[in-house]
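Quick log. Single chain, no ligands specified.
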Amino acid sequence: MGVSLLGSQFATVASIMSSRVVTVDPSTSIANALRLTREHSIHHLVVTIGTKFLGVVSDRDLLQHVSPFAGTINERPRDAVTLQRPISGIATYHAVTTTPGATVAQAARLLLNQGISSLPVLDDDGMLVGIVTTRDLVRGLLKPV
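-> predicted structure:
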């Protein structure tokens, strides 16, 4: 069994993106966002209002704002308060995005050059249609032919 090279540089983002994206409202608490990343085994949540894309929150963003004492016997009142803060304060707005028609090579270049690990995929009207992560790129690269 061989491996595909995604039809070389001409494969599109639409062929490898995840169209099932977990989205959150800007008012979602840090605690609920953490729960969603664990529950869905994902590393990125896309912040939207309806289907309008606003930004991205990664599990790393969330963990940077959570005390290691949160949820433990050593939890302090301020640790619990932090968990209730909305993600709107830590989301990355004006995030780098791509389109379904972009090539996989273009998406990979964006991820590498920007030092990021996900690209929300937006249609021509700016509506969210998917997400591409480094994991999607690797999975696409290793698709059996």
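Residues 8-141 form a domain with the CBS-domain fold (CATH 3.10.580.10).
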